[in-house]
Amino acid sequence: MPKLQSQEKPRFYWQLLFSLLMFVYMYLPILVLAFFSFNESRFSASWEGFTLKWYQQLFRDQRILSALQNSLIVAVSAVGIAAVIGTLMAVGLARYRFRGKTLYRGVSYLPLIIPDIAIAVATLVFLAVVQIRLSIWTIVAAHVVFCLAYVGLVVSTRLADLDPHLEEAALDLGATPRQAFLQVLLPELMPGIISGCLLAFVLSLDDFLIASFTAGSGATTLPMEIFSRIRTGVKPDINALSVILMLISGVVFFLAESIRYQSAEKRLKQ
């Protein structure tokens, strides 16, 4: 008798459906926002035609440009300070033994789990106690706190994948501890440092809560300016600004992931 060919029933992939619904739920509001940023109408209730005037108006808005400048100053300054201190902190925790190391490690990464409102209030109370006048630099000081934790975490992850005997080999070949760090360890850590800095930069640029508590007069950042405008309703120029910020965040994330991927590929080839 000829063998009957078994026909497999089509499978219904619940995981695929769940993933699709999750992505629709996450990204559909973003697509709607981007769509209405090109709407001719000042209101988002109906479509009246395609236009780029809201983007043009955005780049002529001096308040937005001033707030963007303040945000860039805060982000670049905080990330620059956190890059140096965070790298040294990660190396010290990975390479040296000292009393209270476990406690210090836990305290160093606490900003990753502490709510932003707690960091904001604590920073404001501290600045009031020491009588430091609020300004753009108090925002920088507050942002260094959580930027430091993110940079330190990414660099420590990179350190865990490195051969711990690299520095010892350099020292045996006659290098000083400083030369071993600058010429051997630091180049290996650079992909992790850059990735951590890019992540911290995006978080600092997008922060509203901590900045609003620690900002002085005239030190308005971009998220603070956006919040002050949407209280009376979301306008098309704010939609356009949101699209630009999301594109910037996406580009920065892509760069960080590219650096991490290239670094991982380089380690596999060695």
List keywords for this structure.
mainly alpha, 270 residues, single chain
Structure write-up:
With 270 residues, the protein is mainly alpha-helical. The protein has 11 helices and no strands. α1 packs across α11 and α8 packs antiparallel against α11. The radius of gyration is 24 Å and the shape is globular. It starts with 13 loop residues before the first helix and ends with a helix. The relative contact order is 0.13. The mean pLDDT is 83. Its main location: membrane. It is a multi-pass membrane protein. This is ABC transporter permease. Belongs to the binding-protein-dependent transport system permease family. CysTW subfamily. Keywords: Cell membrane, Membrane, Transmembrane, Transmembrane helix, Transport.
Give the overall shape, derived from the CA principal axes.
globular
User: Which range does the strand content fall in?
Assistant: under 5%
Low-confidence stretches: none
Most strands sheet? none
Radius of gyration: 24 Å
How much is the average pLDDT? 83
What structural category arises from helix and sheet content?
Answer: mainly alpha
Total count of helical runs of at least 4 residues: 11
Please tally the β strands and state the result: 0
State the end-to-end CA separation: 59 Å
**Helix percent band:** over 70%
**What is the string of SSEs from the N terminus onward?**
HHHHHHHHHHH
